[in-house]
Each structure stands twice: as C-alpha cells, then as structure tokens.
Amino acid sequence: MKILLFVTGFRHLEEYGYFNRFLRRLNSLPSMCDLFIYCNNPHISGEIVARYQAFEQKNKYLHLTTLNVGFKMGGVEAVSRGMAMGAFEGYDYVVHLHPDVFIVDDSPMVAIMTQNLANDCVFFVNRGDPDDSRFFCFDFFIFKPRLLTRNVFLDALYTFQGIPEHWLSDMLANNAIAYHVVKRFAENRWHPRRVDEHLGLYHEHDLGLVDDLLNRLPATAAPSPRTLPKWQPPLVALHPSDVTDP
Fold first, then answer.
1. What is the DSSP code (8-state) at residue 6?
2. Cβ proximity of 12 and 204 under 8 Å
3. CA nearest 54: which of 85, 89, 14, 90?
4. CA separation for the pair 80, 154 (Å, rounded)
C-alpha cells in the first residue's frame, strides 16, 4: 500500500517540527508513507528547509510557491497543483492534512485505508459541525488518486465564494464521486480543540498545548523508513493561465 502525506501550509514553521515528532512515534505510518510539503507563502522563513530535511522519509519533497488564490481556497489550489504536477501518481492513497493536524494515533487511519483498498470508494471525509450537513473537514481527508479521471480540485477554484469545507462537499456531490464519511469527532463537533475521539488526530494552534501533550505521551520507537529509490517528482512551474476553471 503506497501512501503519500500531502501537507499543505502557509504560515506554519514550528508546526513541522512537532508534526515530525508525532510522526516518528507512530507504529505503522512512518514506514508506509512518502511526504510532500506544499507551502504557498513566498515570505516563509528559510528555516522551513531544515524542518523538511529533518523528516526521515526517504521519498520526500518540499514545494515552495508564490501561487496563492487566497486564504479560503489556497488549500484547494494546493491540492489541485499537486495533482497537476503528477505528485499523486502511483499512490494508492493521498492523505491531505495541514501541518498543525498532528497524528497522535495512526491505527484508525491505517485501518480505514487497509480495509478499503480494493473497493471503489474514492474519498474518505469527516464532519465537523452537526448543524451543517455540507461541512466536510478540509484539514484532513483521504482520497484514491487512481480513481479520479480528471483534476476535480480545479472545480470552481477561482469562483467559489464559500469555505473549503463546503467546497469539498459540493465538489463530491456535483461530480457524483463515491465517498464515505468516517467518524472523527464525538457528535461531529470539532470544537473545543482536542485529540478527536475516533481518528486520533489533534488539530491545535497553541503549540504550548501541543508540546505538553508530546511530553505526556509514552515514547514509541517507530520502524525504520523504507529503502526505496529516490523519488523524482516533476518540477513544473504552474501559473493560473495554465489551467481552466470549469
């Protein structure tokens, strides 16, 4: 099972260090995944390179770009660029998440991917607001790139006026894409921030709280990363004129 962690961020810097510390203590995912960090902040500190280099994954890539459609849809644009660059080719799963979504327990995520590997379900999404049926959390979702016949992340990329959570829900409905809603939060409510009850994820902006949690967790030795040929993703300079908005 080939898995790509596709991490999209803007302002984040220290978060990558914490993300890496959580990743290293996991039981299964570190030895199963490759890593792609996409940062659309042209003014990000050069320290991001050191944070990236500290990851133990053999196949990893850091993509820095000035392209940013804006606060609301910048994450959608990042995923669309990843697909356009061919970064998802050859993977059974792409796990999209932000640098401040820390994986405390990888067993629920790995179980979902293992159990659904052979079926035709394309997306695995989760809810964060019990009063909003269109609120599919954009900070974490999983999809099978091989089952996408086109770059659906381009849909309404430059025209959608809502939040990315609604965009994700609408995109799946408009394209009749098979998806499964997996349990994450108790009562489907993301607030207050905490380690969620079902997926073992912790989306937290207060890094003091993140550090405190790491210090309280038992140390776990992760397996050594796989030894694979060095990944050479295509280096393509993309501009808005290169794509069309359906």
1. E
2. no
3. 14
4. 6
As a three-state string, the secondary structure of 157-175 is CCCCCCCHHHHHHHHHHHC
Phi, psi of 52 (to 5 degrees): -65, -45
pLDDT in tens, 83-138: 999 999 999 999 999 999 999 999 999 999 999 999 999 999 999 999 999 999 99
Q: Look at residue 25 and tell me whether its pLDDT is greater than 80.
A: yes
Other Cβ atoms closer than 10 A to 244: 9
Average pLDDT of the chain is 90
Cβ contact 76:164 at 8 Å: yes
What is the rounded radius of gyration, in angstroms, for the C-alpha atoms of the chain? 17
Predicted confidence (pLDDT) at residue 224 exceeds the cutoff of 60: no
**What is the end-to-end Cα distance of the chain in Å, rounded?**
33
DSSP the chain: --EEEEEEESS-SHHHHHHHHHHHT-SSGGGTEEEEEEE--TT--THHHHHHHT---SSEEEEE-S----TTTHHHHHHHHHHHTTTTTT-SEEEEE-TTEEES--HHHHHHHHHTTTS---EEE-B--TT-TT-B-SSEEEE-GGG-SS-GGGTTTTT--S-HHHHHHHHHHHTT--EEE---SGGG--PSPSB-TTT-EEE-S-HHHHHHHHHHSPP-PPPPPP--PPP--------GGGS---
Beta bridge partners of 62: 37
Domains of the chain: 3-242 (3.90.550.10)
